[in-house]
Amino acid sequence: MRKSTAILSAAVMALATAVSMSPAQAASYDVSASISTSSAQSGDGPYIKGSISPARSKAIKVQRYIGGNWQNIKSATTNGDGKYGTRLSPEYLDGALGSLKFRVVLDSPNTGKSGTVTKTIYGWRHLSDMTASSGDSFRFYDDGVHLTVDGHDADDGWISAIDGVAYTKWNLQEKCIKLTGFAGLDDYTSDTASLAKLYIGLDGTSHDYDRTFSQYETATLDKSLYKTHYLTFKAKRIEIDENAPLGVGYPRVLCSKDLTD
Fold it and tell me: Which residues form the signal peptide (predicted)?
């Protein structure tokens, strides 16, 4: 009798285990993950894709390594072929910049996780928000200065004094890869015959960008900053008796570190 009872108990336990861990409820999967190779920018974010095996339609979680722990940041679902793809827009990254780590795991009760994938995330930063060293004549628009170049208005940026003189240097720590903005003489405070030159220097070289502007002339800036430590803006008027305030509207740099105050 005791033997029969023991056999029955073992059978019940085995059945209970089989029910609680049935393939439909809790299965182990192989998970792959890869991340887009281009440098992700704020506004588009990295794209993570991969698959699970065996191929099924299953719920997954994208996780990011934060403060020593893996934390869920987004949910997705594989298709019937076991494949998935999802973009991590800025709201999923919480404004984080730099080298970030991600992985993909199967949603509970299933098990399985991918290897770690790493991505450098860049974000735009306004130069007017960043610490700089400069000459006495340098000004930012938060001091009430406004720039209009060939009808294009900017209420954020950099501008020289009315005599066209300015010099400003920012320490980018080799963390930024691009500079954008537009440049030219101010429509309203420059004289008709005025001329001024804008220099943009990378690591002390004053001729990485060297252009002379006349009134109502504008240029778009889209410049690579790869491994630049110091970025310098310098303005100089050509005609000594002419007012020539020269500015750069909305100068922004794309960086992997928050260099603002």
Answer: 1-26
Residue 204 maps to a domain: yes
Give the length of the chain: 261
Look-up of token digits 């007012």: 243
Bridge partners (DSSP) of residue 184 are: 218, 247
30 contacts 53 by C-beta, under 8 angstroms: yes
Question: Which H or E run contains 74?
Answer: strand 69-77
pLDDT tens digit sequence for 166-220: 889 999 999 999 999 999 999 999 999 999 999 999 997 656 899 999 999 999 9
DSSP state letter for 13: H
In a domain, 175, yes or no: yes
CA atoms of 217 and 184, how far apart (whole Å): 6
Longest dimension (CA), the chain: 116
Q: Are residues 132 and 248 in the same domain?
A: yes
Q: Do 139 and 127 touch, CB atoms closer than 8 A?
A: no
pLDDT (tens digit per residue) in 16-31 = 444 444 545 678 999 9
Domain boundary residue, one of 65, 90, 115: 115
Full-model pTM: 0.79
Q: Are 162 and 203 found together in one domain?
A: yes
Sorted by sequence, the CB contacts under 8 Å of residue 38 that are 6+ apart come out as none
Q: What average pLDDT does range 59-83 have in this prediction?
A: 96
Residues spanned by the domain of 62: 26-115
Confidence of residue 143 (pLDDT cuts 50, 70, 90): low
CATH assignment of the domain containing 221: 2.60.120.1060
